[in-house]
Specification:
Chains A, B: InterPro entries: Peptidase_M32_Taq. The structure is a homodimer of 489-residue chains. With 489 residues, chain A is mainly α. Chain A has 20 helices and 3 strands. Chain A folds into 2 domains: 3-141, no CATH class; 142-489, Neurolysin, domain 3 (Orthogonal Bundle), CATH 1.10.1370. The termini of chain A are far apart.
Chain lengths: 489, 489
C-alpha cells in the first residue's frame, strides 16, 4: 500500500467512528431513556477521546509527508486531513480537556440562569468560556485574529473582516425592509388546533416531496429538530406544535435540506473527508433554499395550501394568495429561531458583532447584556423585556460556539446566490413547484453542489454551483422583491 | 493513582465503548434504515477494532503486574480483566480477522442455503468456520479440550464433560415426560386474531409487572426479540404475531428477565467488569425463571387470563384452569425457539452433542445432517421433513458460536435451582402472583443474585443465591410435577 492508501484506510475508520459518535447524539435526543444520562456522558467522552487520539495520531504526520496526490480528489482529501491534523495537534490536551469540562458545566449554568432570568449568574461561567476559547484561538492562530481561528472551524477560509463587510451591507437594507413591512397591515394568522397525526403525515409527505431518501434515513420527533449523519444513514427529526403546523412543516423541509446535501454526495466519497458537507454555511444554504426560496415560494405554498385543506379541512384561510401571505407573515418577536426570512439575519448580525467584540476584547463580558439590548432596540425598534428573550436566549455561547452564528447568515447569502442561478437554469420551475414537484430544483442542486461534498473550499463550492462570487446582493434583491409584492411596498 | 486505579480508569472507558458498540447493534435491529447496511458494517468493524486494540493494550499487562487487590471486588475486577487480556492476546490478529470475515460470509451463505433448503451449499462454509474455531480453540487452550476453550467464552469455568454428565441425566426423563404428555389429549389452542395494539399494551404492562425499569430502558419491536445494554440503559424488544399473543407476552417477559439482571446489578459496579451479567447461563436463568417458573405458573396465568379478557374480550378460553393448560400446551414441533418448557432442552441437548462431536472430530461436517436427523427421530419420535426444520434452522453455527447452545439448558437448570430456593424463601408467593404482583420474587432474585453481577464465578453465583450446587434435579422435579398435574399423568 502507498502512504496515501494507508492514510485513507486509517481515515476511513476514523470517519466510521465519527458516524458512530454522531449517532450516539441522535439517540440521545430521540430514543435514550432519561435515566441513562450519566452513563451516556461517559460513553460520549470515551468516543471523543478515541476520535481525538486518532486525529493526532503521529502516523498521520508521517503519511502526510510521503503521500502523493495525483488527482483533485486525492489533493482535497489530503488538504482536509492535514487541516484537521494540524488544528487538533496545536491545541494542548489539557486545554482541550478544560474546554470540554467548562462548556459542559457552563451549559448547565446557562440553562439554570435562563430559567431564573438571572444574567449575573451566567456571566462568570461565560467569562471562563471566553477566556478558554481565546487561549485555544491563540494556540491555533498565533498572532492572527483569534476570532478568525474559531470561525475557521465552522467555515474554513472565512474571516471576520470579510463577513463584517458583507453583513454591514446587509443590515441597513434589512432594517429598512423590516420597518416598511411592519408599517403595513399584517396578514391573518392561523387560529385553530391542527391534530398531530395530520401534521406528521403531511410532514413526511413534504420530506418525500423534497427528495428525502427514506431508505437511507428516518424521521423521528425531537424537542429541537436536527439532521444527523452522513453517507448511507442520514436521519432527520421534526416536532409538532398544536396551533402552529408551519413550525412542523418548515422544520422538516429545513432538515431535509441538510439531509439532501449529505445524501446527495457522490457515493465514491463515502466515509472519506469529502463525504460530508464542506462547511456550516454551505450546509445552511441547502436547508435555507429548501425551506425558504422553494418551500415558502408562491408556487409551492399554492400546492401546500391544497394539501393542508385535504388534511385538515377548511382552516380559515380563504385562498392560495392569502395562504402565501400567512406563511410569510412578518411580526415583531424576540426569538431568533422563530424569526421570519426578513428578520432572521438581523438576529444573527447582532450576535456576530457582539461575539467578535467579545473575542477582540472590545466588549467586556459584563457589558454584554447592555450591548445586546441597545443593538436590539436599534434594529428592531422595541426593547428586550427579559434575558430569556435577549442575551440568554441561545445555547451557543455557553457551549463555546463562537464563530458559529455568522454561518447562519452566510448560508442565507449563499442560498440567495444559488437561487438566482437555479431560476436562471430552470426558468419555468414554478410550474413544477405549484404541483408540489421539486425534482428539477433538487436535481440541479445535487448536480451543481451537493454531489461534490468537500471537494472544493466553501467559497469555491458556491462559485462552482452559482457561477458567481458569493455576494449579499441576490438575497437582498430576492427579499425586497418577494416581500415588496406580499406587502404591497 | 495506583496501578489498580489506572487500570480501572482505562477499563471504564473500554466498558463505555463496549456499550456504544452494543447499542449500535440495537439500532441495527430496531431503527437503522435498510440502505445503511454497508456503512454500518464498516462502523461495526471500526468499533470492534478499537475494542480489540484496547483489550490487548500492553499497558494492561503492566498494570496487572503491579495492581493490588485488597478486597473481593477488586480481586474480581482483576480476575475479569486478566481473563479477557490473556484470552484476547492468545489469538493471533490474522486468525481473529479471518474468523470475523468468514463468519460474516458464512452467515449470508447459511441464510441463502436455508431459504433454498440446500444443506450442501452451506457445508463448505461450515467446514471453514469449524476449522477456524478449532484453530482458535487450540491457540487459547493449547492441548486441552478445544470445545472447553470455546465454552469458556460463554460460561467461564464450565467444561463439556461436566455438562455432558448433567445433560445425560436430563435427557431420558425429558424424553419420557414428553412421550407421556403427547399420549394425552392436548389442551385447546387460541384460535382468533388478537389486535397488535392490544398485544403491545398488555406486553408493556407485563414488563412493568415484572419490574422492568422503563426510566432506564425502552421497548421496541424487532424481528427477533432481544435485550441489549448494561447499567443505566438496558433496552428490550418484542414482536407481535396476530394469532399468537403468547409469542409477544412471553418474549417480553423473557427479555425482561435478562434486562432485570442487568438493571439489578449494584450501581457501584457501573461500567466495571462486574457491571454485566456473569455468563450466558446465569443470564438465561433469569430470563427463564421470569418467563416459565413465574410467568407460566398457575397463579400468574390466572391473573394474565383476566388481563387478556379485559384487553381482548372473550377469546374462547372458558376459565383460568383451561387457560393455564393452553399457555403450557405441549405439541410436536421442529423448531427450538418455538418449543415448550418440556421439549426445549431436548432441542438444545441435540445441538450440544453434535457440536461437541464436530469440535472433537468424532463427527464430520458432511455427516452432520444425517446425525441431526437420526437424533431428532430418536428423541422426538418423528422425522425432520426439510433442512430449515432441521440442521439449517439455527443461525448459531454459521456465526461460529460453538459452545453457546448448552448455556440455554444450563440456564434452565439454574432457573430450576433458583426457583426451588425462591419458593422455600417465599412460600406464599402464589398469593402475590395471582394478583400479577411479582415483586417479592424479583426482590429475592435481585438481593440474592442480580445485584452481584460479575462478583463471583457463574457456579458460585448460583450456589450463593440458591444455597445448593447446581444440579438438574430441581428442573426435572418441577417439570414432572407441573406437567404431571396439567396432563393428569
Amino acid at each position: 500500500m502507498t502512504a496515501y492508501d494507508e492514510l485513507m484506510t486509517f481515515q476511513r475508520q476514523t470517519e466510521a467512528l465519527a458516524q458512530v459518535a454522531g449517532r450516539l447524539g441522535w439517540d440521545q435526543e430521540t430514543m435514550m431513556p432519561q435515566g441513562a444520562t450519566p452513563q451516556r456522558a461517559e460513553e460520549h467522552a470515551a468516543m471523543a477521546q478515541v476520535l481525538h487520539a486518532r486525529r493526532i495520531d503521529p502516523r498521520i504526520g508521517a503519511w502526510l509527508e510521503l503521500a502523493e496526490a495525483p488527482d483533485p480528489v486525492a489533493k482535497a482529501n489530503l488538504r482536509h486531513v492535514k487541516r484537521s491534523f494540524e488544528r487538533t495537534a496545536k491545541v494542548p490536551a489539557d486545554l482541550a480537556a478544560e474546554l470540554a469540562k467548562t462548556t459542559s458545566l457552563a451549559h448547565r449554568v446557562w440553562a439554570q440562569a435562563r430559567g431564573d432570568e438571572d444574567v449575573a449568574a451566567f456571566l462568570p461561567m461565560l467569562q471562563k468560556v471566553v477566556d478558554l476559547r481565546k487561549q485555544e484561538a491563540a494556540a491555533v492562530a498565533g498572532d492572527a485574529d483569534p476570532y478568525d481561528a474559531l470561525l475557521d472551524d465552522y467555515e474554513p477560509g472565512a474571516t471576520g473582516a470579510d463577513l463584517a463587510a458583507m453583513f454591514d451591507a446587509l443590515r441597513p437594507r434589512l432594517v429598512a425592509l423590516r420597518a416598511a413591512i411592519l408599517d403595513k397591515p399584517a396578514p391573518v394568522q392561523l387560529d385553530q388546533v391542527f391534530d398531530e397525526d395530520g401534521q406528521l403525515a403531511l410532514s413526511s409527505k413534504l420530506a418525500l416531496a423534497f427528495g428525502y431518501d427514506i431508505a437511507n434515513g428516518r424521521i423521528d420527533k425531537a424537542v429541537h429538530p436536527f439532521s444527523s449523519g452522513s453517507g448511507l444513514d442520514v436521519r432527520i427529526t421534526t416536532r409538532t406544535s398544536p396551533r402552529d403546523p408551519f413550525n412542523c412543516f418548515y422544520s422538516t423541509i429545513h432538515e431535509v435540506g441538510h439531509a439532501a446535501y449529505e445524501q446527495g454526495i457522490d457515493d465514491a466519497y463515502l466515509l472519506t473527508p469529502l463525504g460530508r458537507g464542506v462547511s456550516m454555511g454551505v450546509h445552511e444554504s441547502q436547508s435555507r433554499i429548501y425551506e425558504n426560496q422553494l418551500g415558502r415560494s408562491r408556487a409551492f405554498t399554492g400546492w401546500l395550501f391544497g394539501q393542508m385543506r385535504d388534511t385538515f379541512g377548511d382552516f380559515g384561510i380563504p385562498d392560495e394568495d392569502a395562504f402565501y401571505a400567512t406563511v410569510n407573515r412578518v411580526s415583531d418577536g424576540f426569538i431568533r429561531t422563530e424569526a421570519d426570512e426578513v428578520q432572521y439575519n438581523l438576529h444573527v448580525l447582532l450576535r456576530f458583532d457582539l461575539e467578535r467584540a467579545l473575542m477582540s476584547g472590545d466588549l467586556a463580558v459584563n457589558d454584554l447584556e447592555a450591548a445586546w439590548n441597545d443593538r436590539f432596540a436599534a434594529d428592531f425598534g422595541f426593547a428586550v423585556d427579559k434575558p430569556s428573550n435577549g442575551v440568554l436566549q441561545d445555547v451557543h455561547w455557553s457551549e463555546g460556539l463562537f464563530g458559529y452564528f455568522p454561518t447562519y447568515t452566510l448560508g442565507n447569502v449563499y442560498a440567495g446566490c444559488l437561487h438566482q442561478a437555479l431560476r436562471a437554469a430552470v426558468p419555468d420551475l414554478d410550474a413544477d413547484l405549484s404541483q408540489g414537484d421539486t425534482s428539477r430544483a433538487t436535481t440541479w442542486l445535487r448536480a451543481n453542489l451537493q454531489q461534490h461534498g468537500g471537494l472544493r473550499s466553501p467559497t469555491d463550492t458556491i462559485k462552482h454551483a452559482a457561477g458567481m462570487d458569493p455576494s449579499e446582493a441576490p438575497i437582498l434583491d430576492y427579499l425586497e422583491a418577494k416581500f415588496g409584492e406580499i406587502y404591497d411596498l
